[in-house]
Amino acid sequence: MRHADEVKRALVQAADAARFAPSIHNTQPWRWVVRDGALELYGVAERQLHEQDPSGRMLLLSCGTALHHARVALDAEGWRHEVEYSADEPLAVIRPVRQVPARPEATRHFQMLQVRRTDRRTVTDERVPEDTLRHLAKVTKETGSRLHVLGRDQVIALAVAVDRAQHAESADGRLVAETAAWVGGERAEGTGIPASALPEEVPLTTVAERDFGTRGTLAAGGGHDRAATYAVLYGDGDGPEDWLRAGEALSALWLAATEQAVNLLPLSGPVEIAYTRRTLRRMLGDVGFPYLAMRLGTLDPAHSAPPRTPRLPAGQIIDIVPG
Ligand SMILES: Cc1cc2nc3c(=O)[nH]c(=O)nc-3n(C[C@H](O)[C@H](O)[C@H](O)COP(=O)(O)O)c2cc1C
């Protein structure tokens, strides 16, 4: 095969693998263009949550997870590549440089990409070990963001912030209508969160899971979150490019957590509302900007995970420019 054809094939495969990436309400707000031996990433305004996420923070975090997933797929094929970032469109351009034998950890990350999912069942009473938390913090740092693990007092403050953010969002009629359009039911169109991924009832935990305003069919388990670890993903800047890069770190962290059998549940509510975002910022000692709060914990392996959430078909999100 000609070199140019090999590169093109690898880029299409990478964009295809990125379909597995997590996104806010499973909006999958990205689009790819394969052009001139490079892969261009674009945000898609029609799949932005304009009421919940007017600044595009969550959209860009989601595009960042897709960007990282595409890079993991290239790494798994041994493709060394460069990435050019931009605060504008395209958000990023990936250029493969040369192919080398794939590293075993790259293959493992690619496998994790296929099994990772958001699991909203309650966690067990088994804590995530300290050295695992240290490993996750290291992975996050290597991808350009940082992870702040909350102490006991801060968990209470997080619970209050989550609650306030939930109240603010539930009182906003337009936002509630927007959520209802993306969440619940069977999601035959390939986007959104199906009922099968949502708890039958929002579990009674200290820090509440997001209340999507609709009941699902997932048996969440009667557990609590006493042994859960709460953390905040954060970094130095608070602009569009920072959010995109934070999404890459979220993806790296989530794949590493999956590999360690640690369940990661994002809690984005307190980041979406300005005053609870300030609370998170204070929790970080004002040394950085919060991108996402999350729960880390272990799940009972005896019970099966929720089924995979749907994805848009490749043809709808990947354009191949001939040449
Ligand atoms: C930036 C971001 C924010 C998210 N926020 C939440 C949240 O607040 N609550 C929640 O239950 N899930 C949250 N999720 C998980 C998404 O709903 C989930 O990734 C999506 O539905 C696709 O499902 P999957 O992760 O199982 O592939 C978030 C995901 C991302 C990427």
From TrEMBL:
The keyword ATP-binding does not apply. Keywords: Flavoprotein, FMN, Oxidoreductase. GO terms for molecular function: oxidoreductase activity. It comes from the Bacteria. The keyword Ligase does not apply. InterPro entries: Nitroreductase-like, Nitroreductase/BluB. NCBIfam families: Rv3131_FMN_oxido. This is Nitroreductase.
